[in-house]
Amino acid sequence: MAPLDPTPGIASNLFNTGAERLALLGKYHKQLMQGYLDGYVDETAFSEGALKKLIAARILWRPDEQQPLALRPLVSELIASMVADENRRQINADVAEKLEQIRNRVQAYRDAQYKGDYAVAELQLQRLTEHVHDLSGQFEEAIDSLWHRLNSDFGFVSSLEDKIRENERAQKQLRRLLDGLDLLDFTELIELSEGNNHLRKLLVSQLQSQLSSHHSSLLEVQKRLVELLAKFRQQQSRSLLISNMVAFLRQHPKYQPADYPNRSELPDLFNQASAIRPQAAIALDKASERQILAELVRALPRQVAVTLSDTPSASFSELQLPWDSEIWRYQILAKYQALPVAEKQIFQLQREESPASAVNSLFLIRDISIGLQAA
After folding, report:
1. Under a CB-based contact definition with an 8 Å cutoff, are residues 221 and 150 in contact?
2. Which of 76, 78, 123, 214 is most exposed by smallest CB count within 10 Å?
3. Dist. CA 152–CA 34, nearest whole Å
């Protein structure tokens, strides 16, 4: 790749040409914006000299001899990006071309440094920086467009079918962007920037940080797109059900719904209520059933009188539990102390205490009795 000649004359010529053409955009901004909205430019709104200048500046063009003048595609894309017009906004997912441009610029920069042409090397580094920023900006522009579509629920189209198609198109664009990110091999970028701090900072540190952030954003957008598509599909199924029912009623105007409650077998759609359980009672006035009732009564288990002692005991010794009696007492005390104050007042806790020894006034809890408070 031949190095560019950064002579002042060429730079001055580019500056003058660019400033002149940008001035044309500003001078005829209303007519050009109207042409963007209409899809064609009203030639009567311009003088003949102005039309020639706009065509020469590559702002307007005539696609066909029989077609009216229109904005060039790049100008339309610029306006669509500035006004976030998702109907015309384009997502550029071509990462391979950007990577090839970056490789070529790195090689041209190293060649200029090797030859000692530092002015050309500085210019090549500037162009390389622009390519790297363009690559990052390409993802940023795409993510901004996708978020704008999500936040408006694809409001730039009217019908539900169009929303589903736009959602699927956005998912395909997003997958191409993710595939483009997979093309970025940072091992190769590290090799390209080997031995040069400027290249390492530009191609490794900055680019890796930016693209990592873009990758996280794209994954979040992908998640939201899938959720929104599921919502659209649900709305579509309900809308289809209603539209089919309306079409059926139009074809059968005398149709009457069946009396489903009187059917022996109900469709699951209507069988939503729980079954009714009728209450039953003994019919003592029917003499024919007295014998059966008497047999049922005789079969009922008899009550057994239970004599309670004055001091109920909760002894579990016969169960041969492995816990020590002291652990039991600690557990009972801990459970009792953990009760709310209102519940503590329901129970009566008594401790059976005795001194540790004749010379030690420390009292030990030998047993615990717990019961309900007397009314």
Report:
1. yes
2. 78
3. 24
